[in-house]
């Protein structure tokens, strides 16, 4: 039995759609809702992993950082 993996979805809104990325695998997808974007990312990632299986568990580390203020346009 193959163990299910828990992967990360990073999302942002871009021109009225949600863009989703899986940093562990490098797959991207999009959707008009957050749920659709994540579902599309899951499908894209599963299809990718069928062709290019992960050899080992990769755990992303997610953090935040500050940048200096810049002039807004």
What does this structure look like?
The chain contains one helix and three strands, in the order βββα. It is α+β, with helices and mostly antiparallel strands and 73 residues long. The chain has a single domain (1-73), classed as Double Stranded RNA Binding Domain, CATH 3.30.160.250. Strands 1-2-3 form a three-stranded antiparallel beta sheet, covered by helices on one side.
Give a short account of the largest sheet. 3 strands, antiparallel
Find the count of extended strands (DSSP E, 2+ residues): 3
Element-by-element helix/strand order: EEEH
Estimate the helix proportion, in percent: 10-25%
Write down the overall geometry: globular
Taking the alpha carbons of the first and last residues, their distance comes to: 54 Å
Q: Which sequence of strands runs across the widest sheet?
A: 1-2-3
Radius of gyration: 15 Å
CATH architecture: 2-Layer Sandwich
The fraction of residues assigned to DSSP E strands is 15-25%
| Alpha-beta classification | alpha+beta
| Unreliable stretches | none
Total DSSP helices: 1
CATH topology: Double Stranded RNA Binding Domain
CATH class: Alpha Beta
Task: Average the pLDDT over all residues and give the rounded result.
Answer: 91
């Amino acid at each position: 039995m193959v163990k299910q993996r828990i992967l990360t979805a990073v999302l942002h809104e871009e021109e009225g759609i949600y863009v989703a990325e899986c940093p562990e695998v490098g797959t991207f997808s999009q959707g008009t809702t957050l749920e659709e974007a994540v579902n599309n990312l899951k499908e894209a990632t599963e299809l990718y992993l069928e062709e290019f299986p992960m050899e080992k568990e990769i755990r992303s580390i997610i953090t935040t950082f500050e940048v200096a203020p810049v002039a807004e346009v």
